[in-house]
Amino acid sequence: MQAASRKRDNLFRLYRYPRPRSASMLASWPGIGNVSLIVARYLKDMLGAVEIGEIDPVNFFEPVGVMVEDNVVEKPRFPESKFYYWRGKEAGKELLLFIGEEQPASKGYDMVNCVLDVARRFKVERIYSCAAAITRMHYSEKSSVWGVVTKRELLSDISRYDVVLKGDVRIAGLNGLVLGMAKERDIEGVCLLGEVPSYATQMANPGASLAVLRVLSKMLGIEIDLTELSSLAKRSEDEMEMMAKQATAAFIDRFTEPIWEQEEEREEDEEEDD
Length: 274
Fold this sequence. Notes:
By secondary structure, the protein is α/β, with parallel strands linked by helices. The protein has one domain (2-226): 3-Layer(aba) Sandwich (Rossmann fold). Helix content is 39%, strand content 22%. It has eight helices and ten strands. The strands form two sheets. Strands 1-3-6-7-2-8-10-9 form an eight-stranded mixed β-sheet, sandwiched between helices. It has a two-stranded antiparallel sheet with strand order 4-5. It starts with a helix and ends with a helix. The model has no long low-confidence stretch (mean pLDDT 86).
């Protein structure tokens, strides 16, 4: 295990070396509704977390094209996978963030191991992740937050917060895998899942992220201004409502015949019967 860990040291680099006494970590990759990334990026920006390192993308990603700006080709760009650190004014308020722009098509297990290696190095005691819970809900309903843990003893801990314990669930992708691998290393893990409508899984869902972040900030004991995210969630809901109205109008226009046309058809039928 130690030999494998030393080999992985070449896969990431750290530019700063904070010395937390103990810390929590939020590990985040893209997923359904972009729930996890919205939470992590908002938390990073509002806290002013400092970048301390990154995973070398060359080992995990292959560029498949380039961008062209004003007719000039740009250099190939790799997805970023970076570590951030924040220390609060109060003792014990220390947080590591890992934010990956993309999930690798392969070697996901190796990437998660790199994240956990860094977590161990900075004495992380608990890892959090976020994901989406796909449900049959209306877009205007407020998202509930589901919770899962890596140890049964943690259930009583998270039950103190506004979370739903659903029992048997499946968490796809690295936002789920990171908890399973944290369990292998005997690191505590908690995943918070925000509910998203089953018909809108391809859309960003800041409302679900807002619900998750409200719970997560309480678990971390961090006060954070959620005004901007609340506004974004409201705009997203308004856009969904507009799309729903447009879809309804299009359906009515396509499949519903006006009453006056129905009357004209009946009159023509009556004339034919005569």
